Structures
1.
Amino acid sequence: MSTPTVNILVTGGAGFIGTNFVRYMLAKRPAYNIINYDKLTYAGNLENLKNVETKQKYTFVKGDICDAEQLKATFEKYHINIVVNFAAESHVDRSILGAKVFVETNVLGTQTLLEVSKEFAVKRFIQVSTDEVYGSLGETGFFTEETPLQANSPYSASKAGADLLVRAYFETFKLPCLITRCSNNYGPYQFPEKLIPLVIVNALNDKPIPVYGDGMNVRDWLFVEDHCSAIDTVLHKGKVGEVYNIGGNNEMPNTEIVRRILAYLQKPESLIKFVTDRPGHDRRYAIDSTKIQRDLGWKPADTFETALPRTIQWYLNNRAWWERILSGDYQKYYELQYEKR
Ligand code: NAD
Ligand code: TYD
């Protein structure tokens, strides 16, 4: 008997982590078919995948996870048997300016995707969630998988809502779901609205770097490829119905990150501008990833010491990539390369 084909629907595959995951899987699992299903919001950038788009195992579908009919057509056409859901509105500051689209995509979109996944009886549904669903820590302690959900921003609240729906589809319908909750990622292809790429891009343009509040908020940073390897591990070895925290024990206050980047780029600290704090700004995130390390044997390959310089270098080497984001030109790529086909 032949082994069944693996057809993975990667939603949000044109975003930062999705892009890295698509690339990671095409290299690591060459027999798998990867179907990238993405709405191409401002955060979706198909130029990220330019040099893999002709690969036989890769397909792009422009689509919304809120659109059940289009999802069904895609599941049917590509015989989808695995779903990895990255699609989301992902920026906290935007969720403060307008929460509605966060509920639409992150909550209703996830529910629509779950429903279609149930109808097509997928073998695995991986929900890519975030440590932000746990809320904020004080000076000490770590988030474990048992930490109660205490989301503080509309973004994290919408992700928490999605997590509860995923859990409900497992408990009620036995849909084989797993949830991953990762700490802050950094690396190539991150949209320059998030802290690390924003600092790099502003510094290279000699523009002020806005640091919220006292700059002493702490995040637990993980290199994006380590997140990809963790999701691949959970997909292959994880137990259905379980939650897995993912983190790298790389806690650092924002000001320290900004200073390291400026030092690497030989730019002056006078570019730093302390600005009004983000409302509801979580003070500290720190992940206890014992469970995935102990039960599934995953561990991160990188630390800030190794991967931050590499990341900065990537932005230096790929200036055209982020300049096309700043000018808006990246949004013309789909029209030019796909619509004319
Ligand atoms: P991103 O904003 O860079 O990318 C999101 C992608 O989803 C974009 O390509 C966008 O076009 C697509 N999308 C948005 N709405 C859609 C919809 N309705 N239908 C289909 N596609 C849609 O986000 P990211 O940083 O790559 O994060 C990916 C996932 O990982 C998110 O679910 C996020 O919550 C989670 N996460 C992110 C981090 C982080 O540090 N960036 C950490 C932990 C978890
Ligand atoms: P961000 O990259 O938006 O990720 P998240 O809010 O999901 O953790 O922000 C990381 C940290 O950097 C957070 O404490 C907010 C802070 N920050 C700034 O100080 N200035 C900025 O311009 C941005 C975007 C973030």
2.
Amino acid sequence: MKDVSTLHWIGEVDGFLRMIDQTKLPVELVELDCRDAETVWEAIKSLRVRGAPAIGVAAAYGVCLGIQSAVDNDETSFYKRLDETTEYLAASRPTAVNLFWALERMKRTAALLHGKPTAEIAAALLAEARAIHEEDRRMCRAIGRHGAVLLPDGCGVLTHCNAGGLATSDYGTALAVIFAAAESGKTLHVYADETRPLLQGARLTTWELQQRGIDTTLICDNMAAQVMRERRIQAVVVGADRIAANGDAANKIGTYGAALLAAAHNIPFYVAAPSSTFDLSISSGDDIPIEQRDPREVTHGFGRQTAPDGVKVYNPAFDVTPAELISAIICEHGLIRPVNREMIAEMFKQNDSQ
Ligand code: MRU
């Protein structure tokens, strides 16, 4: 297999961002070179790069690209360009808070350097983007370690969408838990929901699990209840795009349904996410903005019309799973269990990471 990673920066301050074009998987493993912020914006919008942490890392590098043309300008126009770029990238997708978290970090870095040569600020911004990238890598490994103990040897695990290496710097969040459990010697049987309408589960999750030699079965989303009833699933592990202060968690549309099914079958339901996915400024899931996407994703999926012309379509890309349905949140600092406002506040107080 080609040696490729979800995202990497090539070169120095005048370099560029190379990413796997996830819309081409699993048929083709091809990379896309982004040499300006517009290409990064389009890649995020059209899910060439997707998954909350990966979107954050891509946006941070997108800022580095956006300011390249302003490095020789005076300070005022350099900062103006920075503001325009961050605002522009923030408008690519609304739900994953990692995007806004990463852009805020980039802005904060620059704000501390007022008065310095613009070349120095540009170098500091690239260093910050690289730090965000590297920290995400470490957080994913830690999530894997903390979560692996939750999966009993021989168990069946259901996952929804793709929260793997493709959705992060590498290794993933929900899939990190599965990878780490497998690496510790456990045998697992993973059921991957295909994840309508854009099939991240079918196209990306099964591909990643196959690469790592993990026993994987693809199911359509509407089969999960039957598979649970047949007692094939002992745990559900998913990622998240934004977790409110009370533990309500937004993730790919269909996650809430999977959580309800898990509760009905007495199966633990785990959310794996780094601290960068928490939005403590939002009190509950009711306030999480839910992205609405093009109806054609439902009526013309992958180039084939599957509904009559003119039919009304509702296409929210995410849903919110209430905290009470989540058995534990697995973050890089450990397990948050039970999932409630107090436990989340305590975890952040102890680790001072927001
Ligand atoms: O629309 P997508 O593919 O970006 O949605 C991705 C998900 O919902 C993931 O589960 C989530 O971002 C967590 S990724 C570690």
